[in-house]
Design goal:
Layout lengths: L2 H15 L6 H17 L4 H17 L8 H16 L15 E6 L6 H14 L4 E6 L4 H14 L3 E2 L22 H14 L4 E6 L7 H14 L3 E7 L5 H13 L3 E5 L8 H10 L3 E5 L7 E3 L2 H9 L1
Helix pairs in contact: 1-2, 2-3, 3-4, 4-11, 5-6, 7-8, 9-10
The chain binds guanosine-5'-diphosphate.
């Protein structure tokens, strides 16, 4: 991810480094190259426009300081603006004052929600939490099974509906309602977690191939029913320009609190990553970087910016 953007920006700055003073024309030429590099990386047009305007303005009015030459100053400005576009500061997970903390996952089908549920549960368990996964994706017959597999791999229990409840009190599924009512499953899952002293509940919800009203209403209903501390919108970083419209639709539809970028290990151009925080005003909180449980990291805007400009 970002390799091509990174190369383009680096070579732009290399040209600058050979110059002493920068004229307005030099700055304009540089800003033009940055604009082209960002557009080619699929960054959303309004984000590119604002980014380049700010860089230009700041570069023109930058004080000549003793420590940095003009070219270094431009690099510093671009770095700071990249951090800003990526959401500014690292945003940690909000934990409820009174457990359980409820985390709801939303996003399109195939975005990586179920995979993320396992990764997040695994990471939280490693920090001493006692997470419970709740299978409120009843849209695909396989989704509940898939979440159960993920839960087992992460070593955490799952609250899942299944036809023909068992009478085994230790089986979380025994308490779940029959398949068909995702809002009820989500609500009962949280109640179950409270009763069994699970301090974090991760609710997996259904995704569709495209944004649709029924999906959005269902997600909003689940949100209203479980009153989550965090609603994480999982987005496939490979989807390019579509990322912006999808993210906007979910921001309106479920009012998510943070973004998770998945498939950052892919060779996509990175535009989604660079657009989503700015366009929605919500921070990127985590990155998913592969299919393994441990391919997961807290997202640090400053480190990502440095990686791009490395
Ligand atoms: P969901 O429909 O949103 O629950 O998506 P899934 O969690 O089922 O993920 C869809 C596919 O993407 C699966 O094949 C996952 O193994 C794969 N996947 C999920 N996250 C990542 C990631 O970070 N990197 C890669 N390479 N694949 C991922």
């Amino acid at each position: 991810m970002f390799n091509s953007l990174s190369d383009r920006l680096t070579s732009t700055f290399k040209n600058l480094r050979t110059r002493g003073r920068l004229s307005e024309a030099d700055i304009d030429a540089t800003v033009r190259e940055i604009r082209r590099a960002l557009l080619d990386a699929d960054v959303a047009v309004p984000v590119v426009r604002e980014f380049t305007a700010t860089v230009r303005e700041r570069a023109l009015s930058a004080e000549v300081s003793g420590a940095l030459n003009p070219a270094q100053q431009v690099v510093k400005i671009v770095n700071e603006e990249l951090v800003d576009v990526l959401g500014g500061a690292t945003r940690p997970l909000t934990l409820a004052k009174t457990p359980p903390t409820v985390i709801m996952l939303a996003g399109l089908q195939g975005a990586g929600k179920t995979t993320l549920a396992g990764k997040l549960a695994h990471a939280l368990k490693g920090q001493g939490h006692t997470p419970l996964l709740v299978a409120a994706d009843l849209q695909r017959p396989n989704a509940v099974t898939q979440l159960s597999v993920v839960a087992e791999r992460a070593g955490v229990p799952v609250f899942a509906p299944h036809p023909g409840n068992t009478s085994d009190a230790d089986d979380p599924a025994a308490d779940a309602p029959l398949i068909g009512d995702p809002v009820g499953v989500a609500r009962d899952g949280v109640t179950y977690a409270r009763e069994r002293q699970h301090d974090v509940v991760i609710v997996d919800t259904a995704g569709r191939l495209g944004v649709d009203e029924v999906l959005m209403r269902q997600a909003a209903d689940i949100r209203a029913a479980v009153n989550p501390d965090e609603v994480l919108f999982v987005i496939d970083a490979m989807i390019g320009q579509d990322a912006v419209n999808t993210a906007k639709a979910f921001a309106e539809g479920v009012d998510f609190t943070g973004v998770v970028l998945s498939k950052l290990d892919g060779d996509a151009r990175g535009g989604a990553a660079l657009s989503v925080a700015k366009v929605t005003g919500r921070p990127i909180m985590f990155a998913s970087t592969g299919e393994k449980l441990t391919d997961f990291e807290v997202f640090h805007p400053d480190r990502m910016a440095s990686r791009i400009l490395d």
